[in-house]
Design goal:
2 domains; 5-stranded mixed beta sheet; alpha+beta; 60s Ribosomal Protein L30, Chain: A; 7 helices; 65% helix; 5 strands; 11% strand
Length: 317
């Protein structure tokens, strides 16, 4: 869920007081902030893609190992059939050997040689069978280990999703007095997105949070302190109206939210928090209408569970 900011019409007066040189410096800084934010978003998506690819590779390895075991099992059945056939042949040769022993020493010698050759072949087949069995045991052990890692990884991912869903419900419970147009909460890609409308946060032309917004932010801080492993990113968003610099406005409003979160009796550890501004460039509605602009002016709080457990399991696979 994305969050929007109010574009402040009175910013025209402020903008007119800034020199061209200062404006250029600010513009350069804002472009750098945007690039860094885009880079962070791309990096996170790459990490998610990498995780999905590694999981798919592990499942592919599992299927490959299962196919190898099936092939080896078929070979064992064939060897066992050959082995039984050799046993029967050996028995027949032994019988013939005993019957012909008295009548011809030359013939007996030949049969003895044949019997020796058959016995040697039988021993070689037995050695091959043992080697195949040992290989199957190794393949099975590898398959069992990979399967255990896959199950562990699936369990961690399920728990992460459960944590996100539980966090979403806790936030909705503490912010129950706000309607869906004021506060929206959803889970996407394992993250919880809390979208706060500027309706409850800022007056036009101000970066100071209204008392209603302060109350909502402090309620959110209580939930964040109950979940200390959750990383917090505060994003400011605006519509396309010009007046104040939208990059500057979105960043300053995000910073105002951070100051409330990190102050007071329920202060959140600042190490967990990142403030950023998206300006007008990630709208949730069309800016062609006043209703769309109102929805685009927002603060978006993005909560990310700790992914260290998933990375540790992938490192061991």
């Amino acid at each position: 869920m994305k969050i929007s900011w109010i574009i402040i019409l009175s910013a025209i007066a402020i903008s007119s007081c800034v020199s061209k040189e200062q404006h250029a410096v600010l513009q350069s800084n804002f472009e750098a902030y945007k690039k860094e934010a885009d880079k962070s978003e791309i990096q996170f998506k790459k990490e998610i893609d990498t995780l999905n690819k590694q999981l798919n590779n592990s499942q592919g390895d599992k299927r490959m190992l299962e196919d190898q075991i099936k092939t080896a099992s078929s070979q064992i059945e064939s060897l066992e059939g050959q082995y039984n056939g050799l046993l029967e042949t050996n028995s027949v040769l032994e019988s013939n050997y005993n019957a012909l022993l008295a009548s011809s020493s030359n013939r007996n010698q030949k049969l003895f040689q044949q019997l020796g050759a058959k016995e040697k072949m039988l021993e070689e087949k037995e050695d091959t069978l043992i080697a195949k069995l040992n290989r199957i045991d190794r393949l099975q052990a590898t398959l069992d280990e990979r399967q255990a890692r896959v199950i562990e990884l699936e369990g961690i991912i399920a728990r992460q999703d459960s944590v996100a869903q539980a966090l979403k419900q806790k936030i909705k419970d503490v912010l129950y007095q706000f309607n869906d147009d004021q506060v929206k909460v959803k889970v996407k890609n394992g993250k919880v997105y809390v979208s706060l409308s500027n309706e409850i946060l800022f007056k036009s032309g101000s970066i100071d949070v209204d008392s209603t917004g302060v109350s909502a932010i402090r309620l959110l801080a209580k939930v964040l302190n109950i979940n200390p492993d959750i990383e917090v990113n505060i994003e400011g968003h605006t519509d396309t109206d010009k007046g104040l610099d939208n990059w500057d406005l979105s960043v300053k409003r995000a910073t105002s939210i951070v100051k409330i979160l990190t102050a007071g009796p329920n202060a959140v550890d600042p190490v967990r928090i990142t403030a950023s501004g998206r300006g007008e460039f990630q709208p949730v509605e069309d800016n062609a209408t006043s209703q769309g602009k109102a929805k685009n002016r927002r603060i978006e709080v993005i909560l990310t569970p700790n992914l260290d457990a998933i990375y540790n399991v992938l490192d061991e696979m």
